[in-house]
Amino acid sequence: MAALDARSSERHSVYRTDPVVDGSPPFKRSRQYLEKENEPPSNDFGAESGEAISEDKGDLESEAHKAQRTGTIPYMASGVLLGEAPSVQHDLESFFYVLYLLPFSYDSPLPGRKVNEWPDTIEAWCNGDLFQCGSTKKANVLNEKWMFQQLKDNTSDEWRRDHKLFYRLLGLIVRLYSPMRRALLASEQVKQEAIDALLSGKAASTDASNGLLTHEDLIEPLEAWLDLPPDQQEMPPAMRRVYSVELETAGSRKRAFTDMLRAAKDD
Asked: Per the record, where are the segments of Basic and acidic residues compositional bias (predicted)?
């Protein structure tokens, strides 16, 4: 995320000298943008994670747990974990998890960052059999407020030290999360309608297109975010309040303390 601090004089001060805007496909660009330098694009962020953790904990960590952290389970689409045949939509959902899990996986967005322990709420995506992992993940992912409060409450302080950088990260995540969540909800609706049709003796619809996530659903908001000036990349204040992810400033702490004193005086 050091690239977020870069500035360029071209087009709204977007980072035209950064590899993220080198003309490569949008998904590759976004990974270069968010992953640390020279780390190959991969869903397997954990190759480094597993080594660092095993050095610290030695034999205390089981091979199964290391496989969960260093393998693909945390990044797999919930539908695949629940037994659905893999599809392009699932690949797109997995891409979102690569982005979403980044601030949980590292202690800082700056160069020299270290691998971080995941909070229990995120670690739950790796616990149990695949069905349990998928069920937990789907329930969490469909809960908008839960998803964003995790970013505020369960990431390292360094991710929130620069408020504007944090709000820009939220702005990117919400632009990709919204179409993904909408597709998951639509897919669930299609399944429910098929069940209702079967129970009523009617033919189930064969059109599942309403529940599909497409490349355009993620590419277009990603490209739009990349082309915005930094202040417009941020999650809007009204949305931050809805999701309860507004960060406290020195001024807001002072006001809260003043309000408390006034309330005590009134009593």
From this structure: 54-65
The token pair at 188 is: 């669930």
Instruction: Judge contact between 260 and 165, C-beta under 8 A.
Output: no
- Taking the model in full, what pTM does it have? 0.67
Listed in sequence order, the DSSP H helices in 154-249 are 158-161, 163-199, 215-226, 230-233, 237-242
Task: Specify the pLDDT at position 267.
Answer: 57
Whether the Cβ atoms of residue 169 and residue 180 lie closer than 8 Å to each other: no
Spatial distance between the Cα atoms of 226 and 110, rounded to a whole number of angstroms: 19
Mean pLDDT of the chain: 74
| pLDDT at position 265 | 56
- pLDDT digit string, tens, across residues 231-264: 999 999 999 999 999 998 754 444 444 455 555 5
| Phi–psi pair at 161, nearest 5 degrees | -60, -45
Alpha carbons 134 and 121: distance in angstroms, whole number? 14
Closest CA to 61 of 132, 131, 13, 123: 123
